[in-house]
Amino acid sequence: MKISVKLTRAENTALLGAGPVELDLEEYLCGVVPSEIYESSHMEALKAQAVAARTFAVKRAMAGTVVDDTTSFQAYRAPLAESSPRSRQAVEETAGQVLTYGGEVIDCFYSASNGGTCKRSGEVWSRDYPYYVNKPDPWDTAARTEKPTNPSHGVGLSQVGCMWAAKQGVPYNEILAFYYSGATLVHEYGTGSVVGFEEETGGFAMNLHTLIFTNNACYKAGRKITPKGIMVHSTGANNPWLKRYVGPDDGLLGKNQYNNHWNQPMDREVCVHAFIGKLADGTIASYQTLPWDHRGWHCGSGSKGSGNNTHISFEICEDGLTDSAYFNKVYNEAVELCAYLCKQYGLTEKNIICHSEGHAQGIASNHGDVMHWFPKHGKNMDTFRAAVKAKLAGSSSGNTGGSAGSGTLYRVRKSWSDASSQLGAFAVLDNAKELADKNPGYAVFDEAGKKVYPSASGSTGSGTLYRVRKSWADVASQKGAFNVLDNAKRCADENPGYSVFDEAGKVVYAGSAAASTYTVQKGDSLWAIAEKRLGNGTRYNEIKKLNGLTSDVIYAGQVLKLPNR
User: Most buried residue, 9, 126, 237, 394, by CB count within 10 Å?
Assistant: First the structure.
């Protein structure tokens, strides 16, 4: 995506001319983020600022607005784009992510400080937006106690509050959720899937992903609980695939051809906090589908009330109930999940029950799960609780295999900077290697971003920055600047017509020739475009891959690169 910028600052006009100039939006953000917030800020604060700035810019780029480089829009300083590696990392790791509300990109404002109170937009300007809510901001108050800051308009993100929260360990998605109430973080400039977040699992070897059911009526009900226990369920249907219940497809789940997942309005009131089952590639994973402290609709009620008011819940996807290999994998995954939740909420194995036990205690409807399944494989809830107890004590009675590092999480991604490509995070290195082996082009990275499997390759270039541009003279076309040559090459390959230049302007790698493009028309689909322009509708996946799309959603006016016919 491009954005038109009228340049007024001398440092910008010296590099790019007065303009207006067309800049790649992500490269533009590399000069905005360090201009708006300290480069030394915690990474989660830089990411929150990157998303807020991107959302502001995308809203205006889509409207054809020409912005300038001052705080009348957003501060932009081109030299900082080259000298602010942490800001660049924040931009790269949130690439394409914007905030939406009701399916539309929000009008995203932010300021230095709100004076301790988040403002409604209608209190400051003429229009009220539902995602700006008047409420106390304890982060801003705490930040100003440490270092006094004059308040500004106070609508949206408080930069000092954001920086303070990030230092306390609050992740950027939660920072954004606080300042933009009810907004959803979405990939591909608002046209892709909802951004999922893994939990930091603190040494637990589960494969945990997040896809919150924001379209389920249970989530929209918005009731909270103080978790007092965990209730284990199983689905009661012979279908081990997570995609049956969790959706839409995030690139890992696989497509649900019947579109009957639970993340949509339904004709019955049902929703749990998580599911365990198979991904499209057959590996086992957990998916969080509600905030852990959200009141679920999972167990009905009994003579003594309802476990919905007290218990976190998850469903294990059943198969035919006879496959011991599958059972052992989901059983161990469930043990890991329960141990993790116990640690999060100060619970013990004694606080874990299944649905049938909930009925016996008078807090759930009359269901038999999981005791119709576990005994077939020599297990029951007592053995399950014992396994969780052992896990909490530091030893595992499950078969995890490999060596679990000292709390280290190994992440499986295409590259360290491409956080959106992450397939999972593992405490056990061997599990991460196994997943990488099943996904060509993926590697395993430690928490410092070092590739640990396969062995790292490519030259880091001793401080050299490799720039990806159409030509050395066309500064505005720059897609990125990389310390690692292989990363720059990959960027050029993903952008036909681009090459890699060293700091002297010499071409060190020539990417593929420029691809033809197509501007999406109203009513188009990827299949129809592939049929019309490539001669075969089944080639729509080639268009998705070339354009980095993770869903089939396209919009009128979008320019797509097309593969060779």
Answer: 9
